[in-house]
Each structure stands twice: as C-alpha cells, then as structure tokens.
Amino acid sequence: MTQAAAIPLREVKRVTILGATGSVGRNTLDLIVRNRERFHVEALTAYRDCDGLIALAREIRPQLAVIGDASLYQQLSDGLAGTGVACAAGAEAIVAAAERPVDWIMAAIVGAAGLAATIAGVKQGAQIAIANKECLVCAGEYLTALADDRGAELLPVDSEHNAIFQVFDQQRPETVEQIILTASGGPFRTLSRAQMRDVTPKQAVAHPNWDMGAKISVDSATCMNKGLELIEAFHLFPVTANQIDILIHPQSVVHSLVSYIDGSVLAQMGSPDMRTPIAYTLSWPERMVAPVARLNLAEIAQLTFEAPDHDRFPALRLARNALAQGGGAPAILNAANEVAVAGFLGGQIGFLTIGDIVAATLENREMAEWLRPLDSVQEIIAADEQARRVARALVQHAE
Ligand SMILES: NC(=O)c1ccc[n+]([C@@H]2O[C@H](COP(=O)([O-])OP(=O)(O)OC[C@H]3O[C@@H](n4cnc5c(N)ncnc54)[C@H](OP(=O)(O)O)[C@@H]3O)[C@@H](O)[C@H]2O)c1
C-alpha cells in the first residue's frame, strides 16, 4: 500500500459509493448522513434494488445515481424526476461513475462484478476503501501494482484487515512475525459435517455476530470468507503466505492481531459493527466519531480462541492451496465459489456441495490452462468466465 498524503477530514471530501444499497454501502451512508457538512456525495450505484437506490438518492442527493440493470433505467429516472440527481444505467455506467473525480471511493459491490469499477477508481488515484475482497482475490497483484503506479491508496474495510492496518508497523515491516486473522467460525462452528448436510440458506445467512449481505454470510458459514481474507491479506500487507495465520474467536471482539519479533502481540478490538472500520477509512489518517456500541469487556467477561478445523471447513485449505498455487488459481477459486454460493442460495445445491464444486472446478481439466500466471485483466476476466462456466455445469449436474 502506498502512503501518499491524505485529505484531512476538516476539508470536504468528495466521495462515491459503489454498492450503495448493500450492507456496507448503507453503513457508509449512515456515517456520511451524520456528518453531512464533511462530505460531498458524487455518485451512488446499485444493481437491481431500484427502489432502494431511489430512496437513498432522494435522501443523500448525489450528483449521479446509477443502476446496474439497464432495464431499470426508466424506473430510476421516474423515481428521481425533479430532484436534480442525474441518472444512468448499465455496467459501463457504473464504471463511468467510478471514473468521476473524487477523493474517496467505497468499493462495496459484492463479487468479481465489482472489479472493473474498482479498477476505474484506482486508475483515478483516489483513496479506495476496499470492502470488495473478491477483487483482491482474483486480481490482487494487478490492483496493488496499479495503485502504486497511480498513487491510489487501498484502505482495507474488512474488519480483520482494517484491524491489521491499524496495528501493523508499516515503517518496520521486517519486525512483524505474523498476522493473525480472527474468524467467528460462523453459524455452524460447532456442527459436524453430517449436521451441516441439511442446513438451509436461511440458517446459513443468520450470522451470529455480524449483519451482512447474503453472499458473505454464506462464505462465513463455509469459512470460505476466511480463505478469501487470507488471500486478501497477502495482497494488502508485506508478508508471506506462511506468515498469515487464522484463529477462531467466536465473540468477534478481537478483529485481528499482529505479532512482532520481540513477542509482542498487538490486537485491535471493538464491537462487531462495520461502521468502525468504515469510519477509519472514511476519516483516514484521522479518526471520526462512530455511533457504535462501546466495547464493555467486563460485560463480555470472556474471550475465547480455538484453532480452525480444516476437516469440517475444507474451504480454508482450498484457499490456502490456491494462494500457494498462484497464477489463475485464486480467480478460479473465487468465481467457482460465487457460482456455488448462488446455487446454494437458489436451492439448487446443498451446503456441503459448495466446497465440492469449488474443489472440482479447480481440478477440472478445462481450467488447467488458466492456472498459469495471468498477465492482464483480460486474462483474469477470461479465467473467471471459464471457471463460472465449469462451475455452473457442476451445479446443474450436482445431486
Ligand atoms: N457486509 C459486511 O459487513 C461486509 C464486511 C466485510 C466485507 N464485506 C465485503 O463487502 C462487499 C459487499 O458486501 P455486502 O455485504 O455489503 O453485500 P450486499 O449487501 O449483498 O450488497 C452488495 C451491493 O453490490 C451491488 N451489486 C450486486 N451485484 C452487482 C453487480 N453485478 N453489479 C453492480 N453492483 C452489484 C448490490 O446492488 P443491489 O442492492 O441493487 O443488488 C449492493 O449494492 C463484499 O465483497 C463483501 O465480501 C462486507
């Protein structure tokens, strides 16, 4: 990550929110609405939640509102008539929104679908609050190199990476021994594989500590979320894969830790509320007030930790292997996982089949040529598309 001069919070910051209607997007806007005088909102984007976008745009009054599904343009335009908010629709319009000059962009589209817009934001050299971990998983080398080249700052929003960002000694990275990502373990932390076989999407989405979008909630239940975060951490911080460890911590109070060569371990703690890490990126390098419940350790009384169980949660091993394999493997892992999670949420496959499909896609002979180093975004997108085709066929023929 580059450490270029940042805009002090006392100046008005021009911001764009990609994925405004989602969980991260709405938490971001909550902070902005509470500090209206500090922010000028340039653009808000959504995909299909047109009513949600209209309501947000009517409240926030950005310069531009963009809906990804082009068939919803008229509905958006009618809904914002008379407000002075410009409207646009389609995937290219989302990228164009990310190209509009601003100081700060929240990259909170879910999945690799957010890659093109995130790249556009990085290219303009803005601060990018990066929630969209899938972008870093499939194009981490490309995005970090581009950010260095354009002077863009990648500010981690994921609570774990934000925690590490807060306690990692960027001036002396050689003194860091390990970074330790904590994981709640998700809603099925104590279930056997046999018990997981019949869990429903509703159960999988009901995360014990965090209120999040459906896809990341299922990823938390399979522990693929932590696998994706392992790859994300590898790209965000100057450490090797072997220096990244995972620790189950069911209370989600310690958001992650960094251990140093002298035996010190620094942790960042807080209530499980995304507005804390979002506020940290929104005000960085200063701090701003966030309306989150204050941590009461006496009330919590006990913080517990355990090692992850790779047999019950094979996604962790799949992700670590994909990172070690390099080349297109992380992009394939991510694309197959997105397809499999959508298949599970759509009732086409069972919970345990998600991991099976990711593993089978990575091993599929049609994917072999995409395991090589991918030199361009076009190649990354081609690998992603091919992995989706393979994974979709596997979903169709599963069970
Ligand atoms: N939620 C959390 O607490 C949390 C924590 C850490 C990291 N993250 C990461 O942040 C990202 C967003 O998560 P989330 O939980 O906020 O997801 P979410 O609630 O499902 O929201 C996703 C957002 O992306 C938009 N979107 C979906 N598909 C799109 C497409 N094809 N093109 C353009 N926009 C699209 C959605 O628009 P519509 O609403 O119109 O469909 C929505 O605004 C994910 O990468 C996730 O892993 C989330």
CATH superfamily of the largest domain: NAD(P)-binding Rossmann-like Domain
What is the CATH topology assignment of the largest domain?
Answer: Rossmann fold
Which class of secondary structure composition applies to the elements? alpha/beta
Q: What is the CATH C level class of the largest domain, in words?
A: Alpha Beta
Q: Give the CATH architecture of the largest domain.
A: 3-Layer(aba) Sandwich
Question: How would you sum up the major sheet?
Answer: 7 strands, parallel
User: Which residues sit in consecutive blocks of at least 5 with pLDDT less than 50?
Assistant: 1-5
Overall shape = globular
The total number of structural domains is: 3
The proportion of residues forming helix, as a percent range, comes to 40-55%
> Which ligands, by name, code or SMILES, are bound?
NADP nicotinamide-adenine-dinucleotide phosphate
Mean pLDDT: 96
List the secondary-structure elements in sequence, H or E. Answer: EHEHEHEHEHEHEHEHHHHEEEHHHHHH
Q: Going across the biggest sheet, name each strand in turn.
A: 4-3-2-1-5-6-7
Distance between the termini: 44 Å
